[in-house]
Amino acid sequence: MKKSARNVLEFIAENIHTPEEFDSFFSELLTPKEYIDLLDRVRICQELSTRATVLQVCKKLNVASATVVRGNKVLKYGDPFIKKIFGSKKS
Fold first, then answer.
1. CA separation (Å) from 41 to 29, 32, 58, 67?
2. For the chain, what is the mean pLDDT?
3. Close Cβ partners of 70 (under 8 Å, ≥ 6 residues apart)
4. Cα Dmax for the chain
5. Where are the domains of the chain?
6. Cα gap 55→63, rounded to integer Å
7. What does the pLDDT look like over 20-47, one tens digit per residue?
């Protein structure tokens, strides 16, 4: 990770502690679509980690299959930290 990215991430981690702070910070910095996309990606991983299928997640969250497939790949092959966060049941 680049030092500049690390500094930004450390700043965020040190200053955002509640869902309300997260909402305030990111809803101001991101466009409404970017913010919704960010939340959708987390919801996608949450749903997939419960063994929901790609099609089920697409229908439930009204998101594109390509986005859900990306989340599925992350849970299957991504960083172990992501799998830990979501308690992934994917193997």
1. 18, 14, 11, 8
2. 93
3. 41
4. 40
5. 1-30, 34-91
6. 10
7. 999 999 999 999 999 999 999 999 999 9
The owner of tokens 């966060």 is: 85
Q: Is residue 44 helix, strand or coil?
A: helix
CA separation for the pair 35, 58 (Å, rounded): 18
In terms of Cβ atoms closer than 10 Å to its own Cβ (0-12, 13-18, 19+), residue 91 is: exposed
Question: Over 70: is that where the pLDDT of 91 sits?
Answer: no
Q: What does pTM read for this prediction?
A: 0.84
The rounded distance, in Å, linking the Cα atoms of 86 and 27 is 23
- Residues contacting 37, CB < 8 A, separation 6+: none
